[in-house]
Amino acid sequence: MRIIYSLLLTGYCFCNSPVFAQAILPDFTVKNNKGKISVSWQNKYLKEVKGISLQRSFDSSKNFSSITTMPDPTDFVHGYLDAKVPYPKMFYRLFIVFDSGIYLFTESKRPDPDSAFNLTNALKKIRAENSIKKPVVKEPVKPIKKAGSSKKIKPKQDKPIVKTITPPVLQPQEVAAEPIPKKEEPPFPSKRIYTGKDNNLVINLPDFKLTNYTVKFYSEEHQFIFELNKINEDFLTIEKVNFLHAGWFFFEIYEHSQLLEKNKFFIPKD
Prior knowledge:
Number of strands: 16
Strand content: 25-35%
Oligomer: single chain
Number of helices: 1
Helix content: under 10%
Strand order of the largest sheet: 1-6-3-2-9
CATH superfamily of the largest domain: Immunoglobulins
CATH architecture of the largest domain: Sandwich
Shape: elongated
CATH class of the largest domain: Mainly Beta
Low-confidence stretches: 1-19, 133-139
């Protein structure tokens, strides 16, 4: 089995020369320093980022697989060192999911040769040149009080009117037993979302151009993980590393805000 040695650096960025400019998402920088590939970027999105995964492939448009997922995608700067790669001219791209559920794949790119690129010095320089963004603190909403009064306003309640209703006596022949309709459950596994090759998750929605789909994912304990909306591909593969562990997961598919399907899938251990 091929072993990939990697160095994940968060809270910093890369540069060694005065002319170096760190790329800003959705753009990113890829450097090749004597066979070691460094991928780095700055995150200046105003909207909240839910997850970022780094992917690579021998091809520029397909067969991408994730090699790492950022532990804190909201951090100001990120870097990843792919120390041993199967081919020095591999293609790299980022899979970015926002808190709103919108996602995107960046354009793929090959590394630029740079034998003078120094990871640690680059991190220190960019961090020194950029201030750390402060968390936004929201003030709690204060309850509205009536002017000139410190008492809470309680709605007036009318006294309930109690009536005694005598139910009619039904004869046995008047009672007709109606069959209770059975709720149809979608078959497992789903035809729309299922585990495919290499145990990655496949989303198959061929009529995505005519329908506005939203997909929500939950853990086995039914805790919300993330969601995808505005799906613009009929066949989408989500890498299993985005779910962080093996096991059962649940999902819900909404069609124009109406629940279309509720089902589950299983990701086995490697």
